[in-house]
């Protein structure tokens, strides 16, 4: 038993005995009793931590310890957060020190392979860092030929001061000019020595280029039938099914939006070219260029009939076979049926 009268345990015991004698113990609720016991235990802990030669802790000393305890807790939280921030700053600093991969330190073939995946804009930006690598002629030559597959200047001895980077800029400028005015665009290419003034060379350029506006191209080909003739001969329809060959043809030479003389010209040129590429098939099926012409027109009308939302009563397979054989009696029924199935499953031939 504690005999020190100043000790909290002794005072608590005295109060309990007094309460039992007077019957006033009920003024202590369960929560108040628990709080009192907690204060006793807490005071004992503080006394053991702050015991000095003069005795137990004073109230002011205990308050300072409690304040220090709270500040230590806050310091640990701040320190923990500080460690995370420090780690992030350290990681960021290390990444900044590492920087981008220096392509000049890699083998040349690997550096060129990495840069070959860039387009012209990104390659110009890369030249600000790796000037010798990004300005390499092989890279710009690949960009030119991947976008403009054929140019007359490719097969000529390059003039003094020639560079494929400069050629790329000229080709891009000429394509933009063509998309605004086809005649001016072709004249620009010729003035720079990129194209020769030949229908065949122009046709090859158009056939191997995908950056030209198809509406402007259709206008240009309608005016330059000599270029159109050479462009048609560049297509190879050997061993192709007729609807698939017609789709490929209209993918390079877009069909007009309306029927007219230009559409008839395109179908006529396609029919002769298709027969020239498949002489054995024509003999086997007994088809002539005129018969192929009728089949192409029938396929275009069938495509419109099956794909147009305005046509409610779609043409049946039996109706298509009957109408087609009525126009061309030598065509077999099975072959015409396969034509219908192709349009029904794949879609329009001139979309």
TrEMBL record:
GO BP annotations, alphabetical order: regulation of ARF protein signal transduction; ubiquitin-dependent protein catabolic process
InterPro entries: F-box-like_dom_sf, F-box_dom, FBXO8_F-box, Sec7_C_sf, Sec7_dom, Sec7_dom_sf
Keywords tagged on the record: Guanine-nucleotide releasing factor
Statement: the UniProt record of this protein carries the keyword Chaperone: no
Keyword Phosphoprotein part of the UniProt annotation: no
GO cellular component term, pick one: ubiquitin ligase complex
Molecular function in Gene Ontology: guanyl-nucleotide exchange factor activity
Pfam families: F-box-like, Sec7
Domain F-box: 100-143
SEC7 domain mapped to chain residues: 165-346
Alphabetized PROSITE patterns for the sequence: FBOX, SEC7
Function according to Swiss-Prot or TrEMBL: May promote guanine-nucleotide exchange on an ARF. Promotes the activation of ARF through replacement of GDP with GTP.
Name of the molecule in the record: F-box only protein 8
């Amino acid at each position: 038993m504690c005999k020190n009268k100043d000790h909290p345990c002794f005072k608590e015991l005295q109060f309990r005995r007094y309460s039992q004698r007077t019957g006033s113990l009920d003024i202590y609720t369960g929560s108040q009793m628990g709080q009192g016991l907690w204060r006793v235990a807490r005071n004992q802990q503080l006394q053991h931590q702050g015991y000095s030669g003069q005795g137990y802790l004073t109230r002011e000393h205990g308050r300072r310890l409690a304040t220090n305890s709270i500040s230590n807790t806050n310091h640990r939280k701040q320190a923990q957060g500080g460690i995370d921030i420090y780690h992030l700053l350290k990681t960021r600093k290390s990444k900044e020190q590492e920087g981008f991969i220096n392509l000049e330190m890699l083998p040349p073939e690997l550096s060129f392979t990495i840069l070959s995946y860039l387009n012209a804009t990104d390659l110009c930006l890369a030249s600000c860092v790796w000037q010798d690598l990004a300005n390499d002629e092989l890279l710009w030559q690949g960009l030119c030929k991947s976008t403009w597959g054929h140019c007359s200047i490719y097969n000529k001895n390059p003039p003094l001061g020639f560079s494929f980077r400069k050629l790329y800029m000229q080709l891009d400028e000429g394509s933009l000019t063509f998309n605004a005015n086809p005649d001016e665009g072709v004249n620009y290419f010729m003035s720079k020595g990129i194209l020769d003034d030949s229908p065949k060379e122009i046709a090859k350029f158009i056939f191997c280029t995908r950056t030209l506006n198809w509406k402007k191209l259709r206008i240009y080909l309608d005016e330059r039938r000599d270029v159109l003739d050479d462009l048609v001969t560049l297509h190879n329809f050997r061993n192709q099914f007729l609807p698939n060959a017609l789709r490929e043809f209209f993918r390079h030479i877009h069909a007009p939006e309306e029927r007219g003389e230009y559409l008839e010209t395109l179908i006529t040129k396609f029919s002769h070219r298709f027969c020239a590429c498949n002489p054995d098939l024509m003999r086997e099926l007994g088809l002539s260029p005129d018969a192929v012409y009728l089949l192409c027109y029938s396929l275009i009308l069938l495509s419109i009939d099956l794909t147009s939302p305005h046509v409610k009563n779609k043409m049946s397979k039996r109706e298509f076979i009957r109408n087609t054989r009525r126009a061309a009696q030598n065509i077999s029924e099975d072959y015409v049926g396969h034509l219908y199935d192709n349009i029904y499953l794949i879609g329009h031939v001139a979309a």
